[in-house]
Amino acid sequence: LCRGVSTSAVRNVVIKNVTIIGGGQMGAGIAQVAAATGHRVTLVDTEDDVLKKAKGIEGSLKRVVKKKFADNPQAGEEFIQKVLQNVSTSTDSVSAAQSSDLVLEAIVENLKVKQDIFGQLDKVAPEHTIFASNTSSLPITDIASATNRLDRFGGLHFFNPVPMMKLVEVIATSATSKETFDSLLDFSRVLGKTPVSCKDTPGFIVNRLLVPCLAEAVRLYERGHGSKEDIDIAMKLGAGYPMGPFELADFVGLDTIKFILDGWSEKYPSNPLFAPIDLLNKLVAEGKLGKKTGEGFYKHK
Ligand code: NAI
Question: Can you say how many angstroms the Cα of residue 129 is from the centroid of all Cα atoms in its chain?
Fold first, then answer.
């Protein structure tokens, strides 16, 4: 049998039990949406504190319920309790993975760390279990290479904030089976999201177009060809963007944008769209990372 392909793989998996590794911004959001759509979710993090905070899912659910159950607060409260009952938390990924149909990883954006966890879980997860990563910028193929289930490995790339954003990019590597890919598409739809199919290429669809656009906006400003404010106004009123590129960069985090660009420029040094940007590097070095630190391209209250 060649590496990564097993005979038991050729079947569609209906995903009911989900293990989410990483209870940060993305993991907690995905857990909330999966629980709200009737899945049994185990949220795993190495930090107990993070898991306690992930109980903040309740606060987020309250906001959803306020709108959805405006006429019936009692039913809203019952919905919240039902959703919360679907979520358990754990610091033990090995035991969580043993009873899941899908292991979805949303931990730190580091190839080695992601490979380590999947390599470990590959040995204990059931044959049918699908593995997926929420990575923004790492090749799914590289992450999957740490396992022997290349046919049952794909990408599920969500957007922040997960409960609000409708899109999921579903990524197939050259080894992902059709059954696995279909299961991931179905799962995304059951979550109430709209999936799009992507190949395992840098940035998939959204970031491959968005990150160079943000980078070009910074370069245009750096050359003195427009003010930040004017570039933002121009793209909002002229291109119908809901946020201008500098507003969006501050929202996403300048460190995240730099991290993605640096990774790509190292891998594709001849692509000028990925080239390093002095101003971006300077702001990050000064700790001006955007909204989360109170200042990026703009000052935030
Ligand atoms: P985050 O920093 O909020 O959360 C990561 C969590 O993973 C932390 O709570 C950390 O304690 C935990 N963790 C780290 N190593 C672990 C391990 N070995 N086992 C269990 N837990 C571990 O990060 P965030 O923003 O949620 O991003 C997670 C992933 O999602 C990254 O791969 C990122 O590229 C991707 N992503 C992020 C988006 C964003 O807008 N923040 C959007 C789409 C994807």
Answer: 20
Is 136 among the residues known to form the active site?
yes
Q: How many Å lie between the centroid of ligand 1 and the Cα of residue 172?
A: 21
State how far the Cα of 80 lies from the Cα of 84, in Å rounded to an integer: 6
Strands 153-157 and 167-172: antiparallel
User: Distance from the CA of 281 to the center of ligand 1, in angstroms?
Assistant: 22
Indicate if 17 belongs to the active site.
no
Q: Is 8 a catalytic residue?
A: no
Shortest CA distance to 159 belongs to which of 136, 184, 132, 181?
136
DSSP track, 31-91: HHHHHHTT-EEEEE-S-HHHHHHHTTHHHHHHHHHHHHTTT-HHHHHHHHHHHHHTEEEES
Report how far ligand 1's centroid is from the alpha carbon of 23 (Å). Answer: 7
How many Å apart are CA 118 and CA 125, to the nearest integer?
Answer: 10
From atom 44 of ligand 1, which residue's Cα is the shortest distance away?
136
CA-closest residue to ligand 1 atom 2? 24
Q: How far apart are CA 262 and CA 136, in angstroms?
A: 13
Residue range 18-49, pLDDT digits in tens: 999 999 989 999 999 999 999 999 999 999 99
* 168 C-beta neighbours (distance < 10 Å), count: 26
Summarize pLDDT for 125-176 with one digit per residue, the tens.
Answer: 999 999 999 999 999 999 999 999 999 999 999 999 999 999 999 999 999 9
**Is the CB of 186 inside a 6 Å radius of any atom of ligand 1?**
no
Angle between helices 245-252 and 206-222 (to 10 degrees): 120
- Output the residue whose Cα is nearest ligand 1's atom 40: 160
**Closest residue to atom 9 of ligand 1, CA basis:** 24
The mean pLDDT of the chain is 94
Locate 18 and state its tokens: 């989900």
CA 196 to centroid of ligand 1, rounded, Å: 22
| Numbers of helices and strands, H then E, in the chain | 13, 8
pTM, to two decimals: 0.92
